[in-house]
Amino acid sequence: MNVVNHPAELRLCGIQLSDETQHDGGAGQDRFQERLEYLGLDRHAQSSEGGGDGGRFTCFTATDAFARDLTPGFDTTQLCRKLELDTHGLPDDLEREILLAMLASPVPFVFPSCDELMSAVSVRKNIVRNARRTALAFDTEHAERPEDYWVYDLARGFTLKPGKPLIEALQKTTQPERSGKLYSFSCYRATEYVILLSIAQELARCNPRVLAELQRQWETRAIMSGQFHDVFLYEYGSMSEPLPPKYYVPGDRLWFRNPDEHSSNVEGYEGSWVFYLGDGLFTNFWKRDQPFTLISKCVELFHWRNATYRNGDGKLQVDDDVVDERVAQSLRDPAEVERIVGRMLRLRDPGGVYRDGGCVDTTRECARRVRPGTCELVFPG
């Protein structure tokens, strides 16, 4: 038995809001309750008091009936359909989906204040909206940026030109409606830019001093890769305590692993970094109008193995046109889809292991705290 495919029994943990008066005058729980009532979510939520080494807190979770009927097995991918939410047309519906998914969480989302919780929701909304607008050209070997905003240096990465605002530069780089061009990115770097933009937008609203520090950081040196993760993101779930395969909150960054050892040796095809957009959909930066479902993402990753070849120089590559053809063919055959999804919709094996694991990661990532007094963002300079 592979332990990663059989997570331990999970319970509802939801949102933990600190009772510490120094953060919000002790009124945070009341303010959050009022927000739930405004959104019509109070009937789906319950609260209880708790405490520990960190002090007293109020725990808000989904009701048992809600969890049973609307998120069975912690599956949040059907919330929009079951509740008839329109997260594109109605901004409050996106907030509803985010909060309901958090209330139904198997791990606690801990916040020191209601303000910090609301900023976390705002960053998630920003990520979803910005990710929907993002369209790029996939390239693991070359990178492009608007030359009027960015300058490249091998040691510092892409940094801002003097006088160029970070938010404006990121929007022009990732959103072709603003530039008229698709710029080349890897999927990992693309997610960094969307996260950075979304956090910067919230800082502009609630913490301009830290936004100014962020601006100076990107005028000096870009933060990338592992350091980006450490500075900006919090990872929840683990290999030993994996999240359920269908538990996602809109605005999560996550990784789908390629479980095929041979094709995973192709640069850029080790896996796929995406955002969860809500409504059962995941980003497709290369074909923005064709976001992935969990099923279509499983089928796409499965067929990477069937499109792997060596070019004339002997370099291992994946033919994306072949992938598209194989995916289209498979999606027309329900029995084939069931077979592939049964193989892929499993928790992944540990790093370096290719046995019976699937493509689903055990963790998700979300932004760190951004509010004055509780902000966790520390820039290296």
How would you characterize the overall build of this protein?
Pfam families: TGL. InterPro entries: Gln_gamma-glutamylTfrase_bac (IPR020916). With 381 residues, the chain is α+β, with helices and mostly antiparallel strands. The protein has three domains: 3-112, no CATH class; 114-243, no CATH class; 248-361, no CATH class. 39% of the residues lie in helices and 18% in strands. The protein is built from 14 helices and 16 strands. It has helices spanning 21-24, 28-38, 64-70, 79-83, 91-103, 114-133, 166-174, 176-179, 187-206, 208-220, 225-232, 294-303, 320-331, 334-344, and strands spanning 15-18, 45-52, 55-62, 109-111, 137-138, 150-153, 157-160, 184-185, 233-237, 253-257, 271-278, 281-282, 292-293, 308-310, 316-318, 363-367. The strands form six sheets. Strands 2-3-1-4 form a four-stranded mixed sheet. It has a four-stranded antiparallel sheet with strand order 10-11-12-13. A two-stranded parallel ribbon has the order 5-8. The chain is globular, with a radius of gyration of 21 Å. The model is unreliable at 1-7 (pLDDT under 50).
